[in-house]
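Contributing: when you submit paired examples, paste them exactly as shown. First protein:
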Amino acid sequence: MSEPTVFLASGFCRLRIDLAYDGTNYAGWAPQPDRRTIEGELTSAISKLAGVLVEPVVAGRTDAGVHATSQVMHVDVPETADDIPNWTFRLNRILDPDIRILKVSVAAADFHARFSAIEREYQYRLADNNQILLPLERYNTATWFRPLDVDRLNEASSLLLGEHDFVAFCKFREDQKTVRTLKKFQWSRLDSGILTADVAANAFCYSMVRNLVGAAVAVGEGRFDKEWALAILENKERVSDSYVFPANGLTLVKVTY
């Protein structure tokens, strides 16, 4: 499906839709032939209410298995669309319970879910040292068998902050821009023992957060010094010694406009 234009067509209004989803059973956000996707489900549901085929635009396209607690999208619908104030309720009646609409509101004509966003923030949850993972946590928390040192994780992560070419931390996609500004990459340990990495940037490349987590973990477990992660960044080449962590530990938690 083509990207809708930035400008609002005559006779239409632009809706901002805030939503959350469990990405476990989806092949990511973007439509794929014969595969269930978040956008595919939303396009079908919203089009039923709008009476026309809509083209959703999202703040950040999440990969297969990645979750969101605070995703934002917009769609353009006819001004004559019926009962928009009750669309939150009506859409949640149509959608499966692993996608929840949090709010539907009429947006300014120049609002754009993707281009108006100035920052996206993700959280990665990780149970290290063979920690027992509670059954419900398996959906949003990855596991690791070695113990990780929080200080070492943060020392490596802090070296990657700022505007850089993150090509070494991105899965290759043709015509993908890889210069990004990493604003936050901070680790902490919850009382439960679970590690969390809070990662924020102006935008992210495909699989970038999971690669950043992998590099930090390689330092946090003592395999490499913190400068090793910086060398990967500066050399702009992917290395086999790093890890790419599973999608299930990753959740989009905030979009800033």
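Second protein:
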Amino acid sequence: MDTIVSGMRPTGRLHLGHYFGALTNWLKLQADYRCYFFVADWHALTTDYATPQGINQNTIEMVMDWLSVGLDPAKAVVFRQSRVKEHAELHLLYSMIVPVPWLERNPTYKDQIKELIGKDLSTYGFLGYPVLQAADITMYKANKVPVGVDQAPHVELTREIVRRFNQVYTPIFPEPEVLLTETQKLPGLDGRKMSKSFGNAVMLSDSPKEIDQKLSKMITDPARVRRSDPGEPEKCPAFQFHKIYSTPEEIAEVSQGCRTAGIGCLDCKKIMIKHVVAQLAPITEKRAALEQRPQDVEDILLAGNRVAQHKASETMTEVREALGL
């Protein structure tokens, strides 16, 4: 059975963007692969080192959402990165052989320098986070890494690091392959990318009332200023929800109604809102139960930490022997 490794930074409660962007894929993978899914709390410090106070609570909130959507600790190892110190050791050893230009050419590094205005990103931690990421992946000898197209360069850098290590020392690590993830991208309530920082997200833990209130106010085709104005569904952010949630008959109905002004935007949105509410109902119910037993989440992480640490210890024994340490 091939091994999969993937992680998320602990940002707290997750939203529908996370669900369709990663979690639905994780649920499929845990059935067919040996999976390690980790809380990337050290990675959170690469951009937010000055405000670490919320990491612990955010970890619990995020893992609650993982478990609520169906991630099964009996099928996958769920753990915290910072509790497996071997990640830091392998990161250090990799950093000795990684040329700085490899890191400077990282497209995500360049993009975030431009986007995260106001944050001090002139740190080695930020520049070198792909090296830590390589340690995360190879620690468990991952064969495949599930990523979107925009993250594929990260895996390619990991492959380069593996090749260099195997050539300089001893062949220990497999070169992980990119497992491209087809994701259904949902816009936020304002039409931009769904993000908590934009305040435009539907959270997995939102109540039916909150979901209805949020999606009822979602931006639509700007051409429909008045109820009598015809619109174009493909220009309407709310229509992207219809494509995922509504039946083919409903999609045809709202498409025709939009183009002919035969249906109002709110009535159109109500059709898909009922599906969103129905889908999230069992998730919010399970999450509510977990909120009453937060120690269960802690126990799952502790158990996962032990499993991950055991495998990491085996890997680092091989690494130290290869380096003569």
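If you have annotations for the second protein, write them as plain sentences, like these:
The chain has 14 helices and five strands.
Strands lie at 3-8, 34-39, 76-80, 144-147, 177-180.
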